[in-house]
Design goal:
The protein is of the alpha+beta class. The chain has helices at about 35-45, 60-65, 70-80, 95-100; strands at about 5-10, 20-25, 55, 90. The chain is about 40% helix and about 20% strand. Helix 1 (about 35-45) crosses helix 2.
């Protein structure tokens, strides 16, 4: 769970008025938001069916488009880490993002 910052503002509107308190929740900005957008955009190019999954043979191309240049050995190891328990030949976005961030 992400931490939530709570902002409390006290406001007194002139003499004799009641004091009011307003609370607003602020969630911190995801520091990887821009990176995640780039990853999503690159992944989407190869997600031709719109199922949040790409052929595992495209993972190297996606990574290189993100300026990540793994060796073939590294790439095979990464694919093994993120593929489904029952390999389907496809990699889902959720697992790819964890690898790429």
């Amino acid at each position: 769970p992400r931490p939530i910052n709570l902002v409390i503002v006290h406001n007194a509107c002139g003499e004799g008025s009641d004091r009011t308190t307003t609370m607003a929740m602020q969630t911190p900005e995801d520091p990887n938001l821009e990176l995640k957008k780039k990853i999503r955009d690159a992944f989407s190019v190869f997600d031709r069916e719109g199922k949040d999954a790409v052929d595992e043979r495209e993972i190297g191309t996606i990574l290189r488009s993100l300026s990540v240049f793994p060796t073939e050995k590294q790439l095979k190891r990464w694919i093994l880490e993120i593929e489904e328990e029952e390999p389907t030949g496809y990699i889902v976005y959720q697992k790819f993002e964890v690898l790429a961030v």
